[in-house]
């Protein structure tokens, strides 16, 4: 059963990697680059301090009239940083425990992959890009509670995650497990965030 799953994983990864063109190479390399998204992260941090960005179901909207704006925004920024730190550390721990090679380093796929970003180093299970981006998407979606924002940020996370398979930096299951880990961590951090805001709001009653 495990061998069959690994075979399917190889087949899906090879299939997605095989549709490459110079144009899509440049698009996927752009999506996978970490530094190009710094302006987005800065924008999200700024939006934490703008009340109109919070939907009516957001804890920040519910408690915002009791808590100073700077404190509400700070809690949101800290929640995002905590989510990122947790997904990054959990990913590194799992990678070192599982020790699964990246597709470009797998002997069974030697010479079969298109590697515009190179084979990469270290281990591949599970994808840090997927866990980080979906963790960010999940926690910010729950914090802001705006449907259009949630749809946009989740699409962004999905595109970045897909780019990792296209570039053959991760197997499909590496990415899917990273997505799941990011969603779970994002949800857990949001629960902590909502709890902290409720405690702070009692202090300012």
Question: Concise description?
Answer:
This protein is mostly helical. It has eight helices and no strands. It has one domain (21-203).
Structural write-up:
With 205 residues, this protein is mainly α. It has one domain. It contains 8 helices and no strands. The chain has helices at residues 2-17, 22-32, 38-47, 59-63, 69-98, 128-144, 147-166, 172-203.
Tags for this model:
mainly alpha, 8 helices
List the helices and strands and how they pair.
Elements (H helix, E strand, L loop, with lengths): L1 H16 L4 H11 L5 H10 L11 H5 L5 H30 L29 H17 L2 H20 L5 H32 L2
Helix pairs in contact: 2-7, 5-6, 5-8, 6-7, 6-8, 7-8
Query: What's the number of structural domains?
Result: 1
Oligomeric form: single chain
Tell me the overall shape. elongated
Low-confidence stretches: none
Q: How much of the residues is beta strand, in percent?
A: under 5%
Going by helix content, strand content and strand pairing, the class is: mainly alpha
Mean pLDDT: 91
Number of strands: 0
Main beta-sheet strand count, sense and barrel state: none
Instruction: Please give the radius of gyration in angstroms.
Output: 19 Å
């Amino acid at each position: 059963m495990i061998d069959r799953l690994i075979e399917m994983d190889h087949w899906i990864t090879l299939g997605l990697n095989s549709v490459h063109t110079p144009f899509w190479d440049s698009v996927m390399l752009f999506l996978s680059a970490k530094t190009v998204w710094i302006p987005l992260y800065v924008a999200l941090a700024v939006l934490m301090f703008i009340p109109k960005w919070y939907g009516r179901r957001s804890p920040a909207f519910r408690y915002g009239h009791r808590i100073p704006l700077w404190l509400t925004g700070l809690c949101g920024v800290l929640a995002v940083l905590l989510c990122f730190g947790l997904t990054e550390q959990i990913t590194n721990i799992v990678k070192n425990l599982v020790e699964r090679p990246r597709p470009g380093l797998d002997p069974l796929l030697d010479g079969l992959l298109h590697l515009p970003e190179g084979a990469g180093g270290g281990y591949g299970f599970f994808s840090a890009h997927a866990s980080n981006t979906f963790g960010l998407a999940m926690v910010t979606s729950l914090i802001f509670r705006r449907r259009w924002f949630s749809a946009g940020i989740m699409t962004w996370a999905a595109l970045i995650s897909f780019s990792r398979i296209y570039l053959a930096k991760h197997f499909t299951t590496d990415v899917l497990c990273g997505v799941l880990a990011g969603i779970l961590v994002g949800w857990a951090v949001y629960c902590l965030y909502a709890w902290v805001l409720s405690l702070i709001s009692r202090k300012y009653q």
